[in-house]
Amino acid sequence: MTHVLKCAATFATYCYVSLVGFLWIAQRRFQYFPSRESPPSIRSLPSVFQQICTFEVLTTDKLRLKGWLWSRELNGALSHIFILHLHGNAGSRLHRLDWAYRVRTRFGCTVALFDYRGYGGNDGYVSEDGLIEDAVAAITWAHNQALQTHQKLVLHLESIGSAVGINALMRTPIELRISGIVSEGGLSSCSDLAKNMFRYLPIELIMKDKWCNTLSSAKCLSRNTHFLSLHGQNDSIVPLWSGRRLYEAVSCEKKMFHEFGEGGHNDLMYQPSYFATLEKFFKSL
User: Would the pTM of this model clear 0.90, i.e. be above it?
Assistant: First the structure.
């Protein structure tokens, strides 16, 4: 009996160590799900999208990353708003095109959809430091564009994009004027989520991209920037408590947390009060 128990313990230890080793090697495949292929050309899209143009930014490590820019309607209700969208860990800018269409149609503002390295036909491989550097380049570009057109810059940060954007603001080479930040399904850190999901694994030891500086970066945001957090009560990917942790850390004096009682993680756009909440926020800037 003792021999059987020793064998079982040895086998369990071997399985555990193998699992930890596998996660160490392959963890980014389980953390990021980029669509690496280039989206279709603008000319191949329906006529309503023909005003979109492609833009490029250059990162500090010399990567040229592409995005889509949909300029404002000059007579739009909120044409003074310039939105830079930093998306979550899956897909590409193509998968945010419906969101951009609804936002621009309703508000007449400028919308820029940006793809990180490894996403949407861009070169490079995904990592925490890489995504932050990408966002630094994109935010700096958007800031300069908004200055030229006399618009107010709003960062719309989706899911892990909240960690990307907030951390990037701490690395920008110059102080940028950000009028507003919208965090949709935002998170406190990836290590928080991983520890909640895998309680018996040594997450702090094996996780490469923890995003553990997100809360400390949120505490350093400009107090004059307006902040809006949107979160679904039924979010099973980034639980409500994680979004609350991020919101509570934010140092902005004018901030608001809006919960959607029927909302999950990827369906907030379809909740009845979604666009009305955005409109109220944009008008307050």
Answer: yes
